[in-house]
Design brief:
The chain is of the alpha+beta class and 202 residues long. The chain is built from three helices and eight strands. The protein has two domains: 30 residues; 169 residues, PEBP-like (Phosphatidylethanolamine-binding Protein), CATH 3.90.280.10. The strands form two sheets. The chain has a five-stranded antiparallel beta sheet. A three-stranded antiparallel beta sheet has the order 1-2-5, with no helix packed on it. The radius of gyration is 21 Å and the shape is globular.
Length: 202
């Protein structure tokens, strides 16, 4: 009887430890997602890019016309020139207001020429643009920009991130999702910058 009680106690302890480990692992997956600028930026990077927009201010609110509740057009963006050695720019737009490992991706545009430091409003949803830039897939698997549409009552922050690279990315737009671009950017980012705007779901 004593042996049975002892064995049962050990089994219960093992179950408790496994449950605790599972809970801890689940907790690691929760919380704010890992934005690309935390993955791709090396230590000792050059001075940050200053990113601005005529459509909104940093920390401000996004107008409906730039969301799925409006015209779903991309806002204008501008940034300061990258450091010596900049060959191209990448723009990623990510929703950091979700409780998941990866952010929701609203825009992937890469191989922006080094001579270009701005994007106009309402960039066409084409894989290849006239200036040589290429666009990858958003959260819906479609090419180009897709505006925010958080759940009603929730306000999410949207990070418009710009990266200056020392190369061009050899990625087929048909395969260019966020992870492909972020992986290709590693060890090639000279510096970056971002502007953050908020949008409340309706």
């Amino acid at each position: 009887m004593k042996k049975f009680v002892s064995t049962s106690a050990v089994s219960l302890a093992a179950v408790a430890l496994l449950a605790a480990a599972a809970f801890a692992a689940e907790g690691q997956e929760a919380g704010p997602p890992l934005l690309a600028n935390k993955i791709a930026i090396p230590s000792g990077a050059s001075a940050r890019l200053l990113v601005t927009s005529s459509a909104f201010t940093n920390g401000g609110a996004l107008e409906d016309k730039y969301t799925q509740n409006g015209d779903n057009m991309s806002p204008s963006l501008a940034w300061t020139k990258g450091p010596l050695g900049t060959q191209s720019y990448v723009v990623l737009t990510e929703d950091a207001g979700v409780n998941r490992h990866d952010p929701i991706v609203h825009w992937v545009i890469y191989n922006i020429p080094s001579t270009t430091t701005e994007l106009p409003q309402n960039v066409p949803a084409d894989a290849k643009l006239e200036n040589g830039s290429e666009q990858g897939k958003n959260v819906r698997g479609a090419v180009g920009y897709i505006g925010p549409k958080p759940p009603a009552g929730q306000t999410h922050p949207y990070h418009f991130e710009v990266f200056a690279l020392n190369n061009h990315l050899n990625i087929d737009p048909a395969k260019a999702d966020r992870q492909e671009v972020v992986n290709a950017m590693k060890n090639h980012v000279l510096t970056s910058g971002e502007i953050v705007v908020n949008y409340a779901g309706k």
